Amino acid sequence: xxxxxxxxxxxxxxxxxxxxxxxxxxxxxxxxxxxxxxxxxxxxxxxxxxxxxxxxxxxxxxxxxxxxxxxxxxxxxxxxxxxxxxxxxxxxxxxxxxxxxxxxxxxxxxxxxx
Amino acid sequence: xxxxxxxxxxxxxxxxxxxxxxxxxxxxxxxxxxxxxxxxxxxxxxxxxxxxxxxxxxxxxxxxxxxxxxxxxxxxxxxxxxxxxxxxxxxxxxxxxxxxxxxxxxxxxxxxxxx
Lengths: 114, 115
Fold this sequence. Notes:
- The complex is a heterodimer of chains A (114) and B (115).
- Chain A is mainly β and 114 residues long.
- In chain A, the strands form 2 sheets. In chain A, strands 2, 4, 5, 9, 10 and 11 form a 6-stranded mixed β-sheet that branches. In chain A, strands 1-3-8-7-6 form a 5-stranded antiparallel β-sheet, with no helix packed on it.
- The termini of chain A are far apart.
- Chain A has strands at 4-5, 10-14, 19-25, 32-38, 45-51, 56-59, 62-67, 72-77, 86-93, 103-104, 108-113.
- Chain B contains no helices and 11 strands.
């Protein structure tokens, strides 16, 4: 059973609009969450993170929202740009102590159309 | 600065053969990791090393072994490859001791096909 779920395999958004990528988790012990971005033929790159003591973290065009009661987080990209077309992985871990506990979701492929 | 390099870029391997995937980083990071990426399953951790001389098992370690003789290199060995090991393999590294809040830097990946 997947502990981190990205139920939308793909998403298409018009350039300039908001992209919202969703992620659900089942393990209530998760308290640190990350988003990675991956282009074809490249490795993932870290995008943004949030700890469970916060409900929002913002970095430029990227904002992550965390709803602990719903075990749900989302990544908002505003405004969406062509270079945002990539696969986005949500990840979660129970605590800061060890990256070996990070669990990744299956990814959502975002396509930004002109 | 090259960051993390992986070799080979891709490989087709007969089942039962031994294969070593190479990973080298030039960032002097303490921690290194091996993941596999499969369609619909995301990234799963195979093995990790928080510092040279130590290794640990991740979520899917069976059929794989690693060594960490020095800071820079972290090879992944498949002793006897099976078709279920067909995947894209990513090596990553992070500074400090491998904490979850330490940013992981990934290599470009090795696409392995086992027939």
